[in-house]
Amino acid sequence: MAIISRMKTSPTPPLTLPDLVPIRRVLVSVFDKTGLDRLAPALKRAGVEVVSTGGTATALASHGLAVTDVSAVTGFPEVLDGRVKTLHPHVFAGILARADRPDDLAVLAEHGIDRFDAVIVNLYAFEEAVARSGCLPHEAIELIDIGGPSLVRAAAKNHAFAAIVTGPEQYDDLIAAVERGGTTLAQRKLFAAQAFEHTAAYDAVIARWMARHAGLVAASAGPGGPGGESSADEPPLPARMTLELDRRMALRYGENPHQAAALFAPVGTRLGLAGLNQLAGKELSYNNLLDLDAATRLAGLLQDPGAVVIKHTNPCGAASAATAGEALAAAMAADPTSAFGSIVAVNRMFDRACAEVLLTPGLFVEVIAAPAFAAEAVELLTTRPTWKASVRLVEIPAGDPWEPTAGLELRSVAGAFLAQRPDETCDDPASWRVVTNVPPPASLTPALDFAFTVVRRLTSNAIAVCQGTNLVGAGTGQTSRVDAVRIALEKAGSRARGGVLASDAFFPFPDSIALIAAAGIAAIVQPGGSKRDPEVIAAADAAGIPMVFTSRRHFKH
Predict the structure, then answer these.
(1) What is the CATH number for 122?
(2) Residue 2 within a domain
(3) Choosing from 33, 63, 88, 312, which is the catalytic residue?
(4) Do 199 and 299 share a domain, yes or no?
(5) DSSP state letter for 270
(6) What is the pLDDT confidence band of residue 135, given thresholds at 50, 70 and 90?
(7) In a domain, 159, yes or no
(8) In the chain, how many domains are there?
(9) Which domain holds residue 436?
(10) Does 213 participate in catalysis according to the annotation?
C-alpha cells in the first residue's frame, strides 16, 4: 500500500531589504532650480556621478558639478521640443532594477545599463501656470509633465533600492544621507510616500483643469442619469470629480468638545474660507467657521454697503445702507439679544465707523469678517473693548471659492457627497409677477428685493420681515410655514407694520395671510408654485396686501 507522506513546507522567508543604500549615481531633472546651489557642491564632494537633462544640467554645471547629459545615456537626443528625453529603457531600467535580483542585474549587464541610487525630480509648475490670468490652453498643455511623474513613480516603486526626492525642502536630508554613506530604508519609504502624494496632487490639479477645458460632463443628462437634470442655462454636472485636500487648520474640536475636527481645502486654493487671513483674536473654532461661511455668503449677495449678524448660521440682523458703518449699526439693532456673541460680516472695508458701532458698551461679538480692515479699526478693536483679546478679525479674499470644485458646492452625507450649483445668482425684481389685484408701490421694490435676498440665507422653512433694507424679524428652520411666519412677526413686533415679508418657498395654505394682515405687512414676495396659489392670492386680495411671485424657490436646509 502506497503511503502518501504529508510533508510540511517551509514558509517563504520574508524579503530582507537593505537598510543603507550608498548614493553613487543619481538622476537629476528639476523644473524648480531652487536649492541646486546647495545640492551640487554636496554631490561633487561625495564624488557622485550625476546624469541630468537640459536646463538642469546647465544649472548644475554652473555650480561646478560635472554632469553627464541624459542623451549620452540613452544614445538618443531630446526630441519634440523636450517632450521626450528620459523615456528610455536605459533610464527606467536603471531606476527599476532590483539590486538583490541576479536576473535583474544580468539584464543590466547584458545591455550596458547602470543603476541609479537616487532620482531627484520636481514637476512642471502646472498649477501656478493655469492660475495666472491669460494662460492659454495650449500653454497649459505644454506644462503637463509626462517624464517627470514617470520617473518619480518608478523610483518610489523601487524605494527598496532607490531614493526619490521631489522637492528642494528634502535636499538637506538627502545631503546628510550622502555624507553619512547612504539613505536608510525608513528614509526611502518616507520619500516614496511623499512622492506618491506629490504625483497624486499633481494629477488631481490637471484632472480638474482638463475637465473644465474639455467640458467634461455626464454622458446622460436625463432623469436618472449620472448628471441628473439641468436647467436650460446650466450644463449637467461632471460625471467624475477628483479632489486633493490639504489640512489647513487644526481645530480644538468640532461642534462639541468630544468631536475631533479640522479645516480641509482643495490643494492650492486660497479663496473663500481657505484663504482667510486672521489679523487678531483667539483661534477659530469649527462653529465659528460655519457661521463665518453663512455671514460672508449673505454679505456677498448684498449689492450696496451691507452688514449681517449671524447666530447659529442664521441672520439675526442684516441691513444695507449708504455706508458699511450705518448698515452695521442697523443690523446690530435688529435683535440685540441674539447679536450678543454673534458673528459679524460687512461687504466693504471695515473702517473706524464700523469699529465704533461695536464699541458700544454691552456689545460682544465672536468674529468680525470683512474683505479688508483699516489699521485704525484694528487698533480700536484690539485695545478698547473688554473683549479685545478675544475677538477674531478675519479678512476673506475676493474671488470665486467654487472654482476648485468645478463650480460646485459640496456637502457631506454619510458615505457620500451631495453636489449642486451654488445658489449665488441675484434675483431680478424686473422678472417678478404681480399676482394680486393691486401691485405693491414702487417705493417698496428695494425692500422686497432685500427681503427676498435675505430669506434665501435663512434655514428653511424661512420667513424674513424687513423695514426698508433692514431685517427686523426672521422665522427659521420651522417644520410648518405658518409657524415660521408667526415667529418672524413676533421678532419684528411693531416694526412689522408697513414693512414687507418674504418667504423662501410657496405658502401651502392661506392661513399665513391672516397673520400677515394682522401684523400690518404692506407687501409680500414669495416664489409661488403651490396648487393652492389661487386661495392664497384670494386671501391676499381680501386683506388688501399686494403680493408678487418670483417663480424661484430658495430652500436652504
Answers:
(1) 3.40.50.1380
(2) no
(3) 312
(4) no
(5) -
(6) low
(7) yes
(8) 3
(9) 429-549
(10) no
